[in-house]
Amino acid sequence: KSEKSGENSTTTPLKRIYKDRTHDTNGKPLRSKHFMCEYIGCEKTFGESETLLAHIRVRHTMERPFGCDVCHKRFPTERCLRVHKKIHTEDNRKYRCSWVGCDSTFRTKSCLQTHMQSHEQRRQYPCDECDQRFNRKGILYAHRLTHSGARPYTCDWPACEATYKDLNMLKRHKETHLGVKQYVCDREGCGK
After folding, report:
1. Domain ranges in the chain?
2. E strand or H helix that includes residue 36
3. Which CATH code, of 2.60.120, 3.40.1000, 3.30.160, 3.50.50, is assigned to 124-150?
4. Listed range (44-48, 62-66, 119-123) with the worst mean pLDDT
5. Which residues are bridge partners to 18 per DSSP?
6. Above 50 in pLDDT, residue 167?
7. CA 25, CA 13: separation in Å to the nearest integer?
8. Is 29 a residue whose pLDDT tops 60?
9. pLDDT of 57-116, one tens digit each?
10. For this UniProt entry, which segments traverse the membrane (predicted)?
11. How far is CA 57 from CA 12, 63, 109, in A?
């Protein structure tokens, strides 16, 4: 049965879950965003089918069909892979961190500035369980889960009861159901 509509279908999930629409579920025009995600509970709309497909792969199917031939990391779209491949070209990393003891380099000034904030920001979010402090609320939240033992992220795959403290770990887990491998051995005939 289709995960989004409950109907039986022989087409692949990626073919079933998007189509060109001009109105949302309430009959309102979608303006310039004609591609709508049809997964249950998700009504995101997009101007391009490629952007919709990337959304589906990142948020719903965890599919990553495009692999880097250098580090074997996998990506949901060719565009993501092209952007990633630039990190392997050293001459593209012309922005160097000036923090003492840090050798990090970046392709863009904005990436360097974001990185510098991690050195410079006050760690204004303290953990009430231990003496650690964090510079972002999201990192503090993730850290607190190490104390509580809570596992708020649950796999929704049929008959799977796996739970995780971290959303990224859940996404990686879901890839095992789909047969997606983030890293693939480049040795001929290995298949692992």
Report:
1. 13-61, 77-120, 124-150, 151-192
2. strand 35-37
3. 3.30.160
4. 119-123
5. 37
6. yes
7. 20
8. no
9. 888 888 888 888 877 778 888 888 888 887 766 666 678 888 777 778 777 788 788 778
10. none
11. 13, 5, 29
In this structure, the chain runs to a length of 192
Contacts of 34 (CB under 8 A, 6+ apart): 20, 21, 22, 45, 47
Paired residues of 154 in beta bridges: 163
Using DSSP, state whether 95 is helix, strand or coil.
strand
The token duo for 13 is: 């999930």
Q: What's the first-to-final CA gap in the chain, in angstroms?
A: 30
Crossing angle for the helix pair 49-56 and 78-85, to the nearest 10 degrees: 80
- CB-CB neighbours of 65 under 10 Å: 13
What are 24's two structure tokens?
A: 């949302």
Q: Is residue 185 helix, strand or coil?
A: coil
% of the chain residues with pLDDT over 90: 0
Contacts of 37 (CB under 8 A, 6+ apart): 17, 18, 43, 44, 45, 46, 52, 55, 56, 59, 60
